[in-house]
Amino acid sequence: MGTIVCQSCGTIIEHFESNQVKTLYGVCSCDCRPSEKQEQE
Question: Which InterPro entries does the entry mention (predicted)?
Fold first, then answer.
């Protein structure tokens, strides 16, 4: 079984079937990281 984890806040986004135990990193839809607009200003 594998797990997808948010790289910003560490929240588990989803579990998926896999022959090996894996942890993949993605970005969740919460506001846990600064938006791109704030970074550009």
Answer: SR1P
